[in-house]
Amino acid sequence: FLLIVNLTRYVMQFVQVPFMVAIPALALYRSQGDLAAQQRIASEQMRISFILLAAMEIAIALFANPLIARFGGHSTALLDMEQWRLVCIAMFFERHGGMHLQLYSTTGHIIWHWLNGSMAAIFFVAMFLLERAGIPYACAFSYIVASIFYDIVSCWYSYRMFRLPIPRFELQASVIPAAVALITFGAIIFAA
């Protein structure tokens, strides 16, 4: 599982870059009252981030174990693909919520402190309950539960503040890359 934790950290750092570099422009458009331009740039950068996320998740699913087997030596554990797929779902929700939270932060109202703390608390409570119930992959499921909470709260603030056209905005920003990732993961599972 430590390999998955490290891979998750590197993937999340890499895929946040396209949206992070747009934050100054998003803040500028916010200060000018040009919400249409802000929404357009946010949607484009979210889509790029999600495409990168899907590509990295799929590449790791396809190539991690062959590379580990070839170069890792006899004592290196292979990546647990079931757990990786669950963590990929959680990463999607966390990144989606993170980008909406970054967009909302252009208002100057910062909620990161309590939201990140709440996400951690939910993760630990879910982990405790799922472990006690003997649920396999309790850590990955706890990450999903906490990430969904994080996503819902972040989106609520973002949608409310910017009056985002939810179906159209999300279709352009996140639904299509998520669907491609799910279909590809389905094909990988079917082929395995």
Characterization of this structure:
The longest helix is centred in the N-terminal third of the chain and has 37 residues, at 35-71. This protein is an all-alpha fold. It has 8 helices and no strands. The two termini are 21 Å apart. The mean pLDDT is 90. It is globular, with a radius of gyration of 18 Å. 84% of the residues lie in helices and 0% in strands.
Features:
mainly alpha; 8 helices; 84% helix; 192 residues
Layout of strands and helices, then pairs:
Blueprint: H1 2-15, H2 17-20, H3 23-32, H4 35-71, H5 81-105, H6 112-132, H7 138-162, H8 166-191
Instruction: Tell the overall outline.
Output: globular
What's the number of helices?
8
DSSP strand content: under 5%
Biggest β-sheet: count, sense, barrel? Answer: none
Tell me the total number of β-strands. Answer: 0
Mean pLDDT across the residues is: 90
* Unreliable runs: none
N-to-C CA distance: 21 Å
Q: What's the SSE pattern?
A: HHHHHHHH
Computed over alpha carbons, the radius of gyration is 18 Å
Report the structural category.
mainly alpha
What percentage of residues falls in helices of 4 or more residues?
A: over 70%
Summarize the structure.
The protein has 192 residues and is mainly α. 84% of the residues lie in helices and 0% in strands.
